[in-house]
Amino acid sequence: MPLFGTLRTPRNLVFGAGQRNALPAYAAALGTKVLVVTDERLAGDGEFHVLMDKLAEAGLQTKVFDGTIAELPLECIARGVELGRAFGADLIVGIGGGSCIDAAKVIALLLAHGGKASDYYGEFRVPGAVLPLIALPTTSGTGSEVTPVAVITDPDRTVKVGIASPHLISHTAICDPELTYSCPPSLSAVSGADALTHAIEAYTTVRRQPTGTIVHEHVFLGKNALSDNYALMAISHISASLKRACDNGSDHVARERLMLGATTAGLAFGTAGTAAAHAVQYPVGAMTHTPHGMGVAVMMPYVMEFNRAHCEAELGEIGAAMGIDLAGKSSFDRASATIDAVDALFGSIGIPKTIADLGIIAGQLPQIAEQAMGSVRLIKNNPRPLDMETMTLLVEAAFSGDRRRLRAMSPDRKAN
């Protein structure tokens, strides 16, 4: 296959301790009335107020919307749009975790183009540029500050839905690891696990034949030369820092590496996409009300095992990026060692082993498989083709905890 690569990225990406102080100058170049989208906890933080004062010193008018709620229900978005419209906002700044930044994206979209969020569900439904958007993450997880997707909860749907468009990518992303220092261990764990899952899925997505119009046919293009570099960079940084950051939130080197890993994972999957682990998490998360990062991390070792015959070399390369000693091992054993290492890392930070541990019961498995198959933008990225039969087997294995069953059913391989 010919060498092909592309990236969907912000115009400006700034990373480093103290770089939040770059916000006022970037904002002043883009607008005069700033709607700041955050949540109630962050709005009461002293450092947040320092940033707001600096925006005022730069001559900007600000209005704070602090009504962002986890999982991002539609009514939350509507309140932010109403406030922004009444204020006459011409610039949106999202500060917080993934929900805050996704809220900022959708608010910027609706203020620019009107209508309802549901008008834009799916891929390439956004007709043009949204209001200028600056994103400052305060967790090392979703990578939303650099991605072209926002995920929200619609009460008319049983699972979360996505709006995917290059127009949703932030104009400027400012990633300051000092903003993550107060992140508690439990949140560091699930957000970091989410980031590692992003990177692994991006590196193992299907590699499509690059047509001359592929960038206009898929928001998430699949594995390619440029996304691969960011995925491996993310895997290296996250695997070296995740447990350290969870064990000691004052380990600033670990905090820096974890945030850099989360952002580069966002760059990787923001172009390549994610796949089966995310497809299964959507119904599991809706049924159990467990964190997104926890759900995708539970699924990841099972998905890696399920996909191994279609990405065995890549699994070994992931292991090498994690620093695993793979010398002298066969390709099959390299992949096995990598899957085991990912499973062990997640276990060491408190990620459960099965979806049963998340609260799923056996009677829900058929519905999970059916709803997961409905996430077409994710299913089409999986390196191994999925149908209802194989999805059911994957979900059942993740429920029972039997990874060896997936190894046995893997095409071209027998159980070891």
Beta-strand percent range = 5-15%
| DSSP summary, beta strand count | 9
Taking all Cα atoms into account, the compactness measure Rg is: 20 Å
Question: Number of helix segments?
Answer: 17
Largest sheet: 6 strands, parallel
Number of domains: 2
Q: In one word, what is the shape?
A: globular
Structural class: alpha/beta
Mean pLDDT: 94
Please provide a written account of the structure.
The chain is of the alpha/beta class and 416 residues long. The chain folds into two domains: 12-180, Rossmann fold, CATH 3.40.50.1970; 185-409, Up-down Bundle (Dehydroquinate synthase-like, alpha domain), CATH 1.20.1090.10. It is 50% helix and 9% strand. The chain is built from 17 helices and nine strands. It has helices at 23-28, 40-43, 46-57, 74-87, 98-113, 185-204, 214-217, 225-247, 252-272, 276-288, 292-307, 312-321, 331-348, 365-373, 376-379, 388-400, 403-409, and strands spanning 12-15, 33-37, 61-65, 91-96, 122-123, 133-137, 149-152, 161-164, 172-175. The strands form two sheets. A six-stranded parallel sheet has the order 1-9-6-4-2-3, with helices on both faces. The chain has a three-stranded mixed sheet with strand order 5-8-7. Strand 7 (149-152) and strand 8 (161-164) form a beta hairpin. It is globular, with a radius of gyration of 20 Å. It starts with 11 loop residues before the first strand and ends in a 7-residue tail after the last helix. The mean pLDDT is 94.
Short descriptors:
416 residues; alpha/beta; Rossmann fold; Dehydroquinate synthase-like, alpha domain; 2 domains; 6-stranded parallel beta sheet; 3-stranded mixed beta sheet; 17 helices; 9 strands; globular
